[in-house]
Amino acid sequence: MAYEIPVTQARAELAELINRVVYGGERVTVTRHGKPLVALVSAADLERLDALDAQERERAADQVISSVSSLGAAPSAPDGRRRFGLTAEHHRPGPGR
Q1: pLDDT of the residue at 18
Q2: Does residue 85 lie within any of the structural domains?
């Protein structure tokens, strides 16, 4: 259950708000001029939020890697090696290599 409280009132009732969060399982949103400012959540809720955030970052990184991997190698110009003075060429590993 969420509970909203103005910042001025939250200052005066901080100990009670902490008890509501820890023992009552509530989430408290502290507001200023009616707009959410901060939230008080239990340490367990914070750990869950951090785990979700880490999973989301990992998914985003996987998507970037997948996108880059799907691009493949760009074909080089027929005279590119001669023109740029390249002396080596990369070949993908395959059968017999």
Answers
A1: 95
A2: no
Number of domains within the chain = 1
Tell me the CATH number at 26: 3.40.1620.10
pLDDT digits 0-9 by tens, 81-97 = 566 666 666 677 877 65
Q: Is position 84 within any domain?
A: no
**Mean of the per-residue pLDDT values of the chain:** 82
**Kind plus residue range of the DSSP H or E element containing 60:** helix 43-71
Which tokens go with 24? 């009552």
Is the dihedral angle over the CA atoms 38, 39, 40, 43 positive or is it negative? negative
Burial of 35 (0-12, 13-18, 19+ CB in 10 A): exposed
Full residue range of the structural domain in which residue 44 is found:
2-64
Q: What tokens appear for 46 in the block?
A: 């914070």
- Per-residue pLDDT of 58-83, as tens digits, reads 888 777 777 777 776 666 666 655 66
